[in-house]
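Sample intake sheet
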Amino acid sequence: MLSRYAHPTHLVSNTMDLNDKITVVTGGGSGIGEASAMAFANNGARLVVVADLDGARAEAVAASIGRQARGVALDVADDAALTALCEQIEHDDGPIDLFFSNAGYGHVGGLDLTADDWQRMMDVHFTAHLHVAKALVPRMVARGDGYLFSTASAAGLLTQLDSGPYAVSKAASVAFAEWLSITYGDKGVKVSVLCPQAVRTNILGDDLDAWDREVESGQASQDGILEPEEVAAAVVQTIADETFLCLPHPQVQTYVERKAADIDRWIGGMQRFRQRLDNAQPG
């Protein structure tokens, strides 16, 4: 298992080569974003812009990578700031070859949450991807090349039992990536979407022991909790292969196929699964 700051080994590129590319990673201050930023640099990226809501963490990750990285503070829900960052990089450094929209967070709840809670998650998990596409797709189409990679979740293909806005916003992220690929894929814009299950990150907070306890009775206990570096390796391989879905947990493919084959049976099974989890809760 790799340490938090270990650089994943170089991967053989079948198609797209990250060497000498300009890349941007949002949510790059920790977790999947941090590991992916390091993997991009290790695979030869000329520039890795590490963006995060916590600017200090973004700068720390960039410093750990070295001179080919730059850390910036960014709230991806701020469309003006997100658009300005894209324009600044394209003006100062050159065309953005790969934009990895990875920022995200968790919020447990459903109908008990406020409309603002739901909207904030939509802004971070979906609308931010829209603003990136509006800023970059015309430029990528004009030069006939570019890559948009977004982090969704297995929840975007299936659901998230303990969070309504997470399930809905991640589903929107997957649907938008699919639409982008269909609409602009033949114009040189490559699109991929990352849909993992449980990954050991701070998306639900910094107490990873509590995260372990939270998931040990759920699906993650059956399919495994991956380290960010393992997911980053899958991201790099997906870029190399230029495939749409990145599934670090291969079991997700089976679940998606079962859902598509008989949606009513799948929903019934998920209802029973939720009931088992509810009955397992203390008190």
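Comment: The CA atoms of residues 18 and 263 lie 39 Å apart. The longest helix spans residues 115-143.
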